[in-house]
Amino acid sequence: MKKKTERPPASGGKMRRIGEIIYRERYLWLIALPGILWYAIFTYGPMYGLVIAFEQYSPARGILGGPWVGFQWFLQFFNSQFCWQLIRNTLLLSIYSLIFSFPAPILLAILLNEVKCGWFKKAAQTISYLPHFISTVIVVGMVVNFLAVDGPVNALIQMSGAEPVNFMAKPEWFRTIYIASGIWQGIGWNSIIYLAAISGIDSQLYEAATVDGASRLRQIWSVTIPGILPTITILLIMNVGNILSVGYEKIILMYNSATYETADVINTYVYRRGIGIGDFSFGAAVGMFQSVVNLIVILAANTVSRKVSETSLW
Amino acid sequence: MAKRKPFQRMTPGDVVFTAFTYLFVCFIVLITLYPFIFIISASISDSGAVARAEVWLWPKGVNFNAYSRVLEDPKLWTSYANTIFIVIVGTIVNLFMTTSLAYVLARRKFSARRVLMMLITFTMFFSGGMVPTFLLVKNIGLLNSRWALIIPAAISTYNLIVTRTFFEGIPDSLHEAATIDGANELQIMARVFLPLSKPILATMTLFYAVGHWNSYFNAMLYLSREELYPLQIYLRNILIEYEMSEMMTDVIQDRDEVSQTIRYATIMVSTLPILCIYPFVQKYFVKGVMIGAVKG
Fold first, then answer.
1. Which domains does chain B have, with CATH numbers?
2. Which of A67, A153, B216, B223 is the most exposed place for a label (fewest CB within 10 A)?
3. ipTM score of the complex?
């Protein structure tokens, strides 16, 4: 902190100018210092920590102390029997959520906008946002209890004369449960951003469409959807960019060894191997693979989008 | 929302469409509410009736036994206290860190603004990941400390950018006027900008507080001492791992029967604070999303 407030030494043209600028802005630097330090330590620190992915890390030797092993951990992962199952599970969950969870709030926003009854619309919005504020633990807790063998869903199934299903232990049910509960959690909250975009559409466009005799469905297709397309595109890029990081916090609560076959994703595996067993280097390598792929995908998606639709993140 | 003339004529197609709209919205509302209604009813019903699946909408054999068992568990209160500590202290740290950095990043003439913004935005798209973060927290000695849930989560980049966007909307002329009056940046921030920023501060407080209240993962990573567990870990153990304190089920025989109502009561006890304040603060959350939406 002292460095920022002292007058810089009068040596060298460029250094001196930088010093002068910093001195002039010393209060701003002072205000920003905690935040800058935090970013340096807690976001760039772990990035630096990724070097352990290329060595045989042991806590005793420290981050730079382990013997260098190059890409050994990456190769070990790609050659392991789990690798393709993990990548497949991760991609499938991402793709299903792009197909089902992503459009759901758009649909809700468009339909809410067509609701003309003020109090009903407001009440519907307030209620639909609510699940967003319920913790993942509670949501999964509800799911687990509702779908338990002695839970209400199985009671219904038994009433209809069928055999009860142990949903949480059946790999074939995992994806459906994950996606459906995800829609329940997010449909209302995620619709806010689209409602905001819809409210930004010039109402003259609707009037003109009405004069032209467009039905309401037609107005949605020709006015509302084009109006919110940039918002949809941006959110789509963000979602595609997270293609390899599905909601592992929720999966860790939902899965068990009986459902690994469909439920185990890259991040849950990193958690079990890297933290659970303590294979720090291996876990860091698998995590790094995922982060790098995510970064490449988001860069690619952004470039494609900029070319095709002239909408992009930056 | 875009307004349309109320007297516009409805074609048969429009009537069908309107009906579908209302049906769909009603469906979403019911689907959202039903689990809560069921849990409330089941939690105050006779545990036998719940086990025999006789409770669907209204409670049967109303009693509060499940609640008294849940509330008797000392672990619930320890975890509740831990969570309240983390929510309060954590949110204060969040607000301090976020507003100070956001203020600086909103100063258009700040020389490092672009570089810092780039470095910060980059962290949204790339990170060191779980293992290096865990090792960092371990190496700086935060394992098994409540601060492990506060310091590593001190800033959310999304919230930082939303706050910065809000600050940027405050006219520069105010800043210039204060500078001419001889105020330095610290004074301008504290006396000019923060008083004008109550809406965003309210929104950020709520975003961060709910985030702390609901988060479980960091606690699972960093805490192994039971007396430090926050509410969400306690809930995970009861709701998902089906752990029950001895106090809750003293008679082994009726363990299964009682356990369902106890779990529902546990959900209610831990969700009630949020359900109670939610209707009153909901608009601040929405505002936060709206401000964020401007910048995408």
1. 12-72+245-295 (no CATH), 74-227 (1.10.3720.10)
2. A67
3. 0.88
